[in-house]
Amino acid sequence: MGVCESSAMSLEMSYYKIIGKDGKSSQTKGNAKIGYSTEHWTEAPEWLSNKGYYPTIFSNLENAQDFQAGYAYQADQIWEVEAEMVMTSLPPICSLESLKEGNLIQQKYWTWPKGTLMAKKVRLVRIIENNEKPKCLF
Fold it and tell me: Does residue 54 contact residue 118 with C-beta atoms inside 8 Å?
């Protein structure tokens, strides 16, 4: 478990998203790559949502930071996000190469990163500074 900054109870649920500095999803390719904004809600392209795939988010900052440290590009940024219609039951993970071609080829031996969720709508709230510590919810 990560280091906690505050013992105050929070009633709001925070989620986290890793995006590229261009404001687009960092772990997708081709026509699955979508842009995010603080101004409007982002939804999955119709071809993905029709198959049960939506924008991915992390359940907490620690999981997002762990993923960024191990798998994401150094230029990627972690954002705190608002999310609507959050889903904990996820479809199988798919190959990034298949997404680039507009297909969904499921990967038998891969699993979603720890703490991954999906949400039908996502909006950026604020960028997380590199040294920011996870907050605890008690």
Answer: yes
